[in-house]
Specification:
4 helices
Length: 116
């Protein structure tokens, strides 16, 4: 396996995990808030959010229907940065994530209104 393929796999996995799961600490906080909630409507909505998060992981679907706009910042502690390859890897992984319905293809260019 090449370094390019290996890094692509890590990047795609990060996209997959960040769109189909919530972190355990957030899930724990949501469960604690659910236990303390007294309003029936709020309790129902919080339970639905927890159920949605569980099902997202099981069904490989995004936790949120509006995952936002991917913005990537990467820094390296030495001179090992892959440069342009890194941009290409992220672009390809984001495109693949969109094709696999992990991200929504609803962003358009502000001037042309075209979806790149």
């Amino acid at each position: 396996m090449s370094k390019y393929t290996d890094l692509y796999g890590h990047v795609y996995d990060m996209i997959y995990r960040s769109t189909t799961n919530i972190s355990p600490d957030v899930e724990d906080l949501m469960k604690k808030a659910l236990e303390k909630e007294t309003n029936a409507t709020a309790k129902s909505m919080m339970q639905a959010m927890l159920d949605d998060a569980r099902m997202a992981g099981e069904k490989v679907k995004p936790v949120c229907q509006s995952p936002g706009f991917p913005t990537v910042y990467v820094s390296f502690g030495d001179n090992s940065a892959p440069g342009e390859d890194l941009k290409k890897i992220w672009a390809e992984a984001l495109i693949e994530g969109t094709r696999n319905s992990l991200l929504r293809p609803s962003m358009v260019h502000t001037l042309t209104r075209k979806n790149p």
